[in-house]
Amino acid sequence: LQVWEEINETSGKLVHLLKQNQKSRYPIKKWKIVKGFDSRTFTSTSLGVDLLIHVNNNNTTASFFPIKDNIVNDWMDVLLLNTDIKEEDIRKTFSSLSFAFQGIPFNVLLAVEYDNTLADQHRRVLNFIREGNNPLVLNKYLA
Questions:
Q1: Hey, what's the torsion of the CAs at 75, 80, 84, 85, to 10 degrees?
Q2: What is the pTM for the complete model shown?
Q3: In sequence order, what are the beta bridge partners of 113?
Q4: Backbone angles phi, psi at 117, to 5 degrees
């Protein structure tokens, strides 16, 4: 139980740090731990905690394309400016960051919400992919 409490508390601190210092115009809506411990034994099941963070995007479809990369870059700047984490200790993709925070390895995964309801979100994302010149390239930014 102590391991779970430590993971949950440290995850909350990390999200709070990102919320308080985020330069992005895409606010953090909610977060959850999606992997990293066994809920029955509270023991580690992976090499890190997968933390899924949802952000709001109520902007137009024209702004879909660079959103994830912009947010991940903002989060990386927050970590570098407000913690002892060094750039070489962060592994970055266009939609995630991997690093150790307060001794716990994290994989922070980004999910962008484009609408308030799931049906509207699906409709907007599919329309955006259909209207784009290269749906395969655009899809990676929306996954």
A1: 70
A2: 0.74
A3: 56
A4: -115, 150
